[in-house]
Structure formats: structure tokens, C-alpha cells
């Protein structure tokens, strides 16, 4: 079905198409990020978009937004494009997610000190390095019939390769971003959004980056891409990744491809018209300095990857503190929303299926909890009774937002660390994925739970948002969880630490 809506061009050149449906508030940013080699530079920029921006300088911002609200946010780097997407059932939190993404996509911070944590430290750590190492091992473990030689299928590994990802520098990332992340070459597809609100958020961006570049006309050899074949390549790769996206985001992806199909000139690959952009090439890369891995041994954890490392400031980011303050002043019982939402299904990633089964087998009536680990992943599983479910959910949201708990992820020791309640089996699960210290990660978990149980300031900062998130998901009145207080939360977290 042809797309009949007229796209809105925001002041900075961002193309914006909004649709109306019953799926809630959703957004999809589509960025043209062609892959020229195996360096993983597009993948690296994707991670830095989520790590820090001028408006959200804390590395734990993403995890606090998704843990303390109903925001869902993620990205996928494919062979020719990168998708950034977010969704929420609440207009206020959706605006917060959009603001986070606009700042990250257009105003990221490429701090050289972040390279050793987000990409590779030259040893065993680095978020992307851990991710690639784990993914490569999973592919290697597949039967040969299921795992054909990928080199025969794809010219380049668009996510990068673990053996060379550490060669990327902050200049590589900054140059690639400057070349491909101009607002005028980015397409935004939204559902039920307000274009005026998006324009307002854009106007709040730093003026230096918000301004549309001048002196357009520099063409790169990478601009010579046939729109029709590009569309087909995108579609083919999307078909392989459908399960990664929610139905709401898949809807926006379909709208984007239909829009491009109806009018190929609308494809985001308008780089030949772009203005004053620095080219990205392998020749450039050779002239840049490699990552300075050992500038400060005291700050680099590679010699002791299981340690907590840097001192972490434990606080809720300012934007969430303000949201909590607004809701407290207005005494909103639930997030205002114009669309219904269903209770979420809390499940573990498939990566933990085997560990979960082992943990269930080992748990007995006499054992309150068990920790199971393999070479890459760790899982702590504890029983919760039916009367503890609300408190456990709310505690899991606070745990997953706590900076000290997130430190292994922020500092590149693992790809993921998270707490979640498995309702159908009445468990609280805390797990880490692609972890350099999976065998001993439970020690860090115990330390951070103890620290959080005594951190009444953080509990007070996060509790209201955590309670609203729980009530919103389970369709409860906030008064039904009034018995959950900072004191009861502290006691529950303390008990977890003793497991």
C-alpha cells in the first residue's frame, strides 16, 4: 500500500514521517552506514551514540531510562544501515527517549578514554569486544550445515571482528559519524508522535551541532550507490532480523521500506547532496593514532578484570529525577497514556537457557539461591514467593539502574548485566552475558546489592519511578503498592545480599 503522508522536514534537515495507529508511541531512526571493511566502525559509532552525549553524559543513562521507565530502546547495525529505535506507552517517557536518541545520534561524545571500555582495552575487556567474542564463539559452535562460511555470504563483517576491533580510534569514530550522521541524511519514522514536539527537542540541541552545514557539494566515492539495489539489500537483511524487533518497530521498518519503494529518491542515501563532509577511507585510518591502551594502568582494569574498577557515582540521572519530581508533584497514579498496554512477559535471553535449567535443578527447599556460570555467562537465581513479587519487581528495576551494579558493563567487563523477575516460575534472576569474569561475578553482584541496600538516597530517587513502572505494567493503582517503602526495599535488597 503506497504511503500517502507527506514527510515533515525539520529545521536541521531531518526527514520525518509520522503514522497513526494503536501501538503506542514508537520511533525509528534510519541512518545510512555503509560498511567498507571489517573494522566495525559503524558498530562502534552505534555504541557511542548510546554511551554518552552532551545532554546525557553518564554512561549508565541508557540503562536507567530502560530500567526505571517503560522505555524500550535498542539499535542494530546492518550491512548498509543502522536502525535506532525506541517505544513507550507514555507520552512523557517517549519524549524523554526521543530526546536521548536525538542527542546521542547528533551530539555523541567520542572520548578516547571510553574506547578501552566500550570497544577494547587491548586485553580481555571492552563491551564490543566481549559481544563479538561471544557471538563468534556461538557461530563456531553451530553444526557445519547450519554454519556455512560467512565469508562466502558477506563481503565484510559489518559488526567488526574481535581480532581487529581494538584498532579503532576515537578519530575513526568521529570521522565516520561526521560523514554519515548529518541530520539531513537521517530519516525518522514515528507512530503517534507530535512533529511540533520533535521540532522543539531538535531546537534544544547544541547550536553548533544543530546547525545545518554549509558549502555543500563534496562527493565521496561511497556515494555511488544504486537506490534500487540498496533497497533490496536492506530488505533482504531485515528479513533475517525480524525476530529482533517488536511488532511495533517492525511496523515502522515496513513503513520506511514502503516509502523508499514508492519513491526511491526518499532513501537516506542522499550523500551526494550533502554538505561539507569529511570523507572516511582506509587511507585516513592509517594516518590516525591507535588506541592508547596503557595511558593509565590504574584506570585500566585489564590486569584485574573481575574488580569493580573505577569509583562510581551512584545517582539517578537528572532527567529521570525531574520526571519523578513532576509525577510526585502532580500525584499521577500511573503514567498518562492514550493507549492500553499489556503486562510484559519477563523471560531470560535464550543465551541463558542451559544455565537456567541447571540452576532450577540445583535449587532445593533448603537453598535460597544458586549461582551457575559457564566460560562466558553467569546466572544467580533465587526463589521469591507470591507475596514478594511486587517488591521483587520493583527491586529488580532499581538494581538494574544502579551504577555500581552496572559497572562491569560500563567498564567493558561484560556485554550485559541485568536483574529480572521470572514470574511464571517465581524466581528473581540476576545475570551477566559474555562476561570476562563469569565464574566470580556473583561476588560483585553481592557487593553491589549490599551497597544498594544501604544507599537510601538512591532508593528514594528511584523508588517512585520503579513503583509506577510496575503498576503501569500490571494495571494496578499506585495505592496497591503503598506498603513498599524505602525501608522495605532496603530490607529486601539486604536479604538478597545474604543469599
What would you note in describing this structure?
By secondary structure, this protein is an alpha+beta fold. The chain has two domains: 8-287, Metalloenzyme, LuxS/M16 peptidase-like (Cytochrome Bc1 Complex, Chain A, domain 1, 2-Layer Sandwich), CATH 3.30.830; 309-497, 2-Layer Sandwich (Cytochrome Bc1 Complex, Chain A, domain 1), CATH 3.30.830. 41% of the residues lie in helices and 12% in strands. The protein has 18 helices and ten strands. The chain has helices at residues 41-51, 61-68, 91-106, 112-118, 127-141, 170-180, 195-203, 207-210, 227-240, 247-262, 282-287, 318-330, 353-362, 389-401, 403-410, 441-454, 456-474, 486-497; strands at residues 8-9, 15-19, 25-32, 72-77, 81-88, 186-191, 369-373, 378-383, 416-422, 427-433. It has a six-stranded mixed beta sheet with strand order 1-2-6-3-5-4, sandwiched between helices. A four-stranded antiparallel beta sheet has the order 7-8-10-9, sandwiched between helices. α16 runs antiparallel to α18. The protein is globular and about 65 Å long. The N and C termini lie far apart (56 Å).
Outline:
With 499 residues, this protein is of the alpha+beta class.
